[in-house]
Amino acid sequence: MIRNANQHSEALPPFVSVHGGHSGDYCQHARDSLNDIVKAYHDQKFAWVGITEHMPPAGDNFLYPDERAAGLTASAMLARFARYMTHCRNLQSAYQGRLTIFVGMETEAYSGAVDFAIQLRDRFHPDYVVGSVHHVADIPIDMNPSEYAMAATACGGIADLYAAYFDLQHDMIQALKPSVVGHFDLIRIFDPDYSTRIKTPAIWKRICRNLEAIASLGLMLDLNVRALLKGASEPYICRPILEKVRQMNIAVAPGDDSHGVDTVGRYVADGIRYLQSLGISTIWTRPGIGASGSSGL
Strand 180-181 vs strand 128-131: parallel, antiparallel, or unpaired? Predict the structure, then answer.
């Protein structure tokens, strides 16, 4: 499936990204200005894009090392997030009629994060929220293999790590009701045996439970193609889960999860072709607060 294509084709529907636009202006592990990233979406003729910057941390204890190294605090990052919202709203207006921009935010699910995300949503009124889980047992699981292993140990083993991840995700879905659930199976990031592990009854039962919650609430899923950029053989969501998604008729849209101009649109064409090969609709649903939104392009 990996073809590293980011060019439009007559056979493909319009390009969109439901999870994109992290920028060096507002994210320590991203590059380039938000202005340049939005311009790149415009230049690639995206029909619409959701700019979904990370929420600020709920407290200083959840700062990442690069944020600490930059001298940031939770308070400073909250002020920066407020600037992001204003900046993104201005771009939304500036590009009106040329590129549809949705102003969003991506959440966390560590201790206290969901309650804080609800406060942020009520204060800043984003167009929609991407609900993501990046920590288990309050340990980051997507930064490196050593912290992933630490999280597994804290849970009692890798199977229990998966179970805890999907339980956290379910709690987040129920409490936050995010319009989009981000990189649904991110927990497999450092597990070479994930294709076998997700089929174990305790884990598959949780996956199905979470998908049922997503379907019942009318939420949608991000087909996160950034996994391909990092060398994975398939995006988040993996094929067995996507087949279940298709059976349940859950809306899916590509997310490039871009972290710089050079990653805008990367592998989106491949993601679209992948969805088409599985018979999943590429008549894109637009995200909206607390619901999947109206049907789109």
Answer: parallel
Count of Cβ atoms closer than 10 Å to residue 99 Cβ? 20
CB atoms closer than 10 angstroms to residue 239: 15
Provide the Cα torsion 178, 180, 183, 187; round to 10°. 30
Whole-model pTM: value is: 0.92
Which of 157-195 are b and which e, b meaning 16 or more Cβ less than 10 Å from the residue's Cβ? ebebbbbbbbebbbebbeebbbbbbbbbbbbbbbbeebe
What are the DSSP calls for 124-163, one per residue?
Answer: H--SEEEE---EETTEESSS-HHHHHHHHHHHTSHHHHHH
Q: What is the pLDDT of residues 98-153, one digit of tens each?
A: 999 999 999 999 999 999 999 999 999 999 999 999 999 999 999 999 999 999 99
- Domains belonging to the chain, first-starting first, are 16-277 (3.20.20.140)
